[in-house]
User: Fold this.
Amino acid sequence: MTIAASPQSTGQPASYERHDWSSAFRNVGQELTDVPLVAARGSIPAELVGTLYRNGPGRLERGGQWVHHPFDGDGMIAAVRFEHGRVLLTNRFVRTQGWLAEEQAQRFVYRGVFGTQKPGGPLANAFDLRLKNIANTQVVRLGDQLLALWEAAEPHALDPRTLETKGLSRLDGVLKPGEAFSAHPRFDPGHHGEPRMVTFGVKAGPTSTIRLMEFATQDQPDGVRAGNLVADSRHGFKGFAFLHDFAITPSWAVFLQNAVAFNPLPFVLGQ
Assistant:
């Protein structure tokens, strides 16, 4: 690898400007229902049938205040539906409890994991440790449910066709209130006989616990239904765990315990 000194200014515009990147993150201004999309080139095969779902932050500003980081934005689901050679677009915000409260208040009333503060400075934020479930990270189909995921709490269930928010889903009692459920599941195509969705949750502390869960992704001959929990185990280890993602092999789930340390005092004091 060759390292060169930074080039001297030539008077030409810089090749990188922060606002160029920030322009990629804007509020989604409207919700659409079955809007036809036109192919820019070619045509859509009539045999292509199904729905592509995507999730990401769609509300990044309220009352003139922008989130500190895009990852604090409220989740919005987009559904691109292919049928009869047509493509239809529908999008909806996930109507979480926090989204509804802030829609009514027209300002941020929750703090964000990535540094977003409520209006009012440290006095308004100190000792307010509530976090908004923003449901903005991933979307998966599990059984008859469409789930909007955020890895620090329960998923939100949506109607797969209309994207209407049905509310928090604890997966028929699998999850306790507020229990973490990863936004980065993995899909095993069938190394254990039938396809499964493999995911996890973490309870962090001086000693941390990983809960590893496996769900059936289709109905099985033995009566197991798609969405049923088919394997559940817990594994404890020493140290505070910040586990964002993982990998699976036919026999193992692989986690990386990141070498990080947290100082919660500034957050507690509203900084």
Observations:
- Confidence is low (pLDDT under 50) at residues 1-9.
- The first strand starts at residue 35 and ends at 37.
- The chain has two domains: 26-179, 184-271.
